[in-house]
Design a protein that fits this description.
The complex is a heterodimer of chains A (about 70) and B (about 270). Chain A contains two helices and six strands. Chain A has about 70 residues and is an alpha+beta fold. In chain A, strand 2 (about 20) and strand 3 form a beta hairpin. Chain A is globular, with a radius of gyration of 13 Å. With about 270 residues, chain B is an alpha+beta fold. Chain B has a seven-stranded antiparallel β-sheet, with no helix packed on it. In chain B, strand 5 (about 95) and strand 6 (about 100-105) form a beta hairpin. The longest helix of chain B has 17 residues, at about 245-260. Residues about 1-20 and about 165-170 of chain B have low confidence and may be disordered. Classes of the chains: A alpha+beta (about 70), B alpha+beta (about 270). The interface of A and B includes residues 21, 27 and 28 of A. Strand 3 of chain A pairs parallel with strand 4 (about 90) of chain B, so a sheet runs across the interface.
C-alpha cells in the first residue's frame, strides 16, 4: 500500500486538524518510524481548492506497517 | 465534540407529520431533523421502520447510541440515532463512505465516539457492529484501551472475541466469518456474552475488575493514548446499549437485518 510520506513538520502541521466538520487528519508511522498520511478518494475531493491541497501534490511511497504485537498469542 | 450524557428517546412508536405529509416515528424525525442533509427517501423510510421495530420489541429504550453508517458521507454517518445532540462521531481521514457502509482503510482510519466505559453502569454495557466484510486478522471494530485494561470486539482467525477490563485473554466463540451483527454484552464483573447474528457464541464468567478505561471507544480501531489494530472491515451499523438478554439479542439482530435487507445491503 502506498501513502503520502510526510516530514515531522508536515505531520505536526496537520495531525488532528479537521478539514471538514466531521473529519480530521490522522497520520501513522511505518516500520521505520516515518510518518504517512492515507487519504480516501472522498478525502482528496474535499481537499481540492483548500489550504491543504498541497498534500495532494506530495509524493507517495510504499508503506511498510510496524510489527504489531498480538497479546492473545 | 459533545459531552452530554446518554439520553433516552420517547418510549412508544409515536408519529409526527413531516413537511411532505408523511408520518415518521418521533425519534426518527428528531434524527432526520438533526441530520438535515439526509434526503434519500428510501433510507429514511427504512430507518424509520427500524425505530418502529426497535420499539415494538422493547429495544429502543435499551439503546444508548446508534450510528447508521450507510448514509454516504462522514457528516450523515456521524449523528447518534438515540440522541443526535450527543456523541457525534469524528472520523479520521482514510474512510470511504458509501450507501453500503463506511469502510476504514485498515491502516490509519478510525472514528472517535466520545463514549467512555464510565458512561455506563459497571454492570451493564453492550456494543455491536454490523460488518459487511469477511476478513481475518488482528482488527478491532469497536475498542478502547489503556496500558492496564482494555475492551474490544473483533474477529480473528475465524473467531470473534472480546476482552474486557483486566482480562487479557482471548474470549473466543466459533464464528464462520466476520459478517453480520457482532454483539458483546457485559452483565456484571463476572458474566459476559458474545453473539453473531443474534446467536450466542460464548459465555464467560471469569471475574474481572470494574475499573474502566479512561479513553473513549473508537470505531474501526482500538486505542487510548495511541491507536492500534485498525480494521479494514466495512461497517454498516454501530450501537452501544445496555447489556441485553439472549432473546433481545435475537430480536435486535432481526431488526438490524430487516433494515439491511430493505436497503439491499444485508450479508
Amino acid at each position: 500500500m502506498n501513502g503520502i510520506k510526510l516530514t515531522l513538520e508536515q505531520k505536526n502541521a496537520i495531525q488532528g486538524v479537521y478539514f471538514n466538520e466531521n473529519t480530521f487528519f490522522n497520520c501513522v508511522q511505518d516500520i521505520n518510524n516515518d510518518w504517512f498520511l492515507f487519504l480516501s478518494e472522498s478525502d482528496k475531493a474535499e481537499l481540492i481548492n483548500t489550504e491543504y491541497s498541497y498534500l495532494l501534490l506530495l509524493a507517495e511511497f510504499e508503506y511498510v506497517p510496524p510489527i504489531i504485537e498480538n497479546p492473545f498469542l | 465534540m459533545y459531552g452530554v450524557g446518554f439520553g433516552y428517546g420517547a418510549i412508544g412508536a409515536t408519529t409526527v407529520l413531516s413537511g411532505g405529509g408523511s408520518a415518521y416515528d418521533a425519534d426518527a424525525q428528531s434524527f432526520f431533523s438533526a441530520n438535515s442533509t439526509l434526503t434519500d427517501v428510501t433510507q429514511k423510510n427504512a430507518i424509520n421502520q427500524f425505530y418502529v421495530d426497535l420499539k415494538a420489541n422493547s429495544l429502543y429504550s435499551k439503546m444508548r447510541a446508534m450510528y447508521f453508517m450507510f448514509l454516504g458521507d462522514a457528516t450523515k454517518n456521524s449523528y447518534n440515532g438515540v440522541n443526535p445532540a450527543a456523541y457525534q462521531l469524528s472520523f479520521s481521514s482514510g474512510w470511504t463512505h458509501s450507501s453500503s457502509g463506511a469502510t476504514p482503510n485498515g491502516t490509519s482510519a478510525y472514528a472517535s465516539t466520545g463514549i467512555k466505559v464510565s458512561d455506563f453502569t459497571n454492570s451493564s454495557i453492550g456494543m455491536g457492529v454490523y460488518l459487511r466484510t469477511n476478513t481475518d486478522g488482528l482488527f478491532c471494530d469497536i475498542g478502547t484501551i489503556d496500558s492496564l485494561r482494555f475492551q474490544l470486539l473483533s474477529s480473528f482467525i475465524g473467531y470473534h472475541y472480546c476482552a474486557l477490563p483486566d482480562i487479557n485473554v482471548l474470549q473466543n466463540g466459533v464464528a464462520a466469518n466476520s459478517l453480520g451483527l457482532l454483539s458483546l454484552n457485559r452483565y456484571s464483573t463476572s458474566n459476559r456474552k458474545t453473539y453473531q447474528k443474534g446467536i450466542l457464541k460464548h459465555t464467560a464468567t471469569e471475574s474481572m475488575s470494574s475499573t474502566p478505561s479512561n479513553y473513549d471507544f473508537k470505531i474501526g480501531a482500538s486505542g487510548g493514548s495511541s491507536i492500534t489494530w485498525y480494521s479494514p472491515r466495512q461497517n454498516a451499523f454501530t450501537c452501544f446499549k445496555n447489556a441485553m438478554s439472549d432473546n433481545d439479542e435475537a430480536n435486535l439482530n432481526t431488526c438490524v437485518n430487516t433494515l439491511m435487507t430493505t436497503l439491499g445491503i444485508n450479508v
